[in-house]
Amino acid sequence: MSEKNTILSIHDLKISYGAVKAVKGIDIEVQEGTVVALLGANGAGKTSTLQSISGLVEVESGEIIFEGQNITNKAPEKITPLGIAQSPEGRQIFADLTVLENLQTGAFTVKDRQKINDAYERVYAHFPILEERSKQIAGTLSGGELQMLAIGRAMMASPKLLLLDEPSLGLAPLIVRDIFKIINDIRAEGTTVLIVEQNALQTLKIADYGYAMELGKISLSGPASELLNDQRLIDAYLGSG
Prior knowledge:
By secondary structure, this protein is of the alpha/beta class.
């Protein structure tokens, strides 16, 4: 980890919704070319943290630094071209558009035609089913295919940092295993991944480093291999299997 460059640094991040303090001063570092897991139960502040990075949620105080540049409270359309793309919780694909049209929306900030063509090739290499179903209306896909489309759409921007929000949510175990394998493959190609998940066990198996959030604060952090054997995390997230 120490030999890699830091691609993302979050310092003393605070996010509030009115009187509700969702994120209470957290620090996170993401090294280039790694998978970093942000774990925790519903309401822990994970999604708010992720959305603040992509500009979808306003930061009350603190800093978000991406590749040395302060991107705190920048507009989403200014953040995406810098190299950050998010696959949101609940997929949020355009149900009435085709698979291909959904992928096209992911490349709206990319002006280079060759770069777009390369992105299609990469997405279809990871998700061959999307190429087979490119003309199919997205709303008719299965849950697993919708998740693949959501990740594929984010990849169309050729991001340096891919943000994934609950990619395993509501999926059958075999599909979850496939999704996590693909996330691992994406990292192997050089894309940095920050993944928000409730499925701690599966996520830590592919992650390099992990943070556990509880009620807006970081309760545990460390190399993923150590967290897998940390009794506090096992009790909190893995105890029920």
